Structures
1.
Amino acid sequence: MTVTCETCEACCCKLEVMLMGDDDVPASLTMEDQWGGTVMRRLADGWCVAVDRETMRCTHYSRRPGVCRDFQAGDSDCLTERRRMTLKHENTRQDTP
């Protein structure tokens, strides 16, 4: 499967993103996790706060964390997350009466 910006479903934007010392993310988009580390803040539904919900693209792309820069669209990690998200969505639909 080929994943491009047009076919991306932003599945990686539901993963926890640990920030490192050289990341330049606005503080308003971050929070402290239970272990004292700094992570990207997520909304109640699990999506990263930086994701534009209409376009499913990062609103702070030029300042995105290193881990996000390293996560490549269409690579094996990306495809694994897409499959896992699809399965989770299908299971949720089956559980709904």
Note: Residues 11-95 form one domain.
2.
Amino acid sequence: MAQKTCILIGAPMDSGKRRTGCLMGPDAYRTAGLRAALADLGHHVLDEGNCQPDPFTASPHPKIHALEETIAWTKALARAAQAALPRGVPIFLGGDHALSLGTVLGAMRHAADVGRPLFVLWLDAHSDFHTPQTTDSGNLHGTPLGYVTGRPDFDGFDPITAPIPQENIAIIGLRSVDTAERLALQQSQITRVDMRDIDEGGIARPLAAFLDRVAAANGMLHVSLDVDFLDPMIAPAVGTTVPGGATIREGHLVMEMLHDSGLMTSLDLVELNPFLDERGRTAQVMVDLAASALGRRVFDRPTRAY
């Protein structure tokens, strides 16, 4: 297995939604042994500490929660991603899913710098394809894919001058999509794999088809893994639980296939809320999945006592 430089960047971001607790996520991943798990696989691991948002002044907004803070995080995380990608595989320890507004933007900028297309694999119960105008909740953790594909109404955010082509995005694990998002997705070229698709045909085939497209284009691949991709019986530490998610084996299969492909260039671990966890169970599951994405095999799994 080729050694990689894995760059851990904490993103204690809690502004993307109203339920607090995700700011504790980076410490939970560190406590659960992420650095040691990756080092045991032979990788060089750099923990660069926690990112901080740019300075901002909060002001009341009639609809959107913590708009200025989220814009400040987006700017800081975009810089962090763009700076880390030439040096290795950045792994962003979230934090809520609004952090991907910045991490994907930074990956887009780096991909443009090196002249390669960027692809995004979104592992999530939700499509996160809203805009600030279409979201009913006002929570910006539901908007990252809307932002990076160039949807309108992201006033105050850095303009997206070269959106990610919709056909370069795959969302796998869908099972809770708002009406406005569903209508927009149905008119898009985004690959959508919901849990019925997975129940009927398995998870490997659509993922393999998407990875083949990435490889054929010599693309870079940003992977965004939301805790709620998994069934809440496995991973309870998330504020957006939706029953009927991916099993632990389906999660590991996705990660193992990503490793086998050699295509993943950056990774988000998002929406872990340790306040809702059971003895660190979800943090450990996410660490184990990250290890699978970086080369841990089925035979190598440690036994866990939760």
Note: The chain has one domain: 5-299.
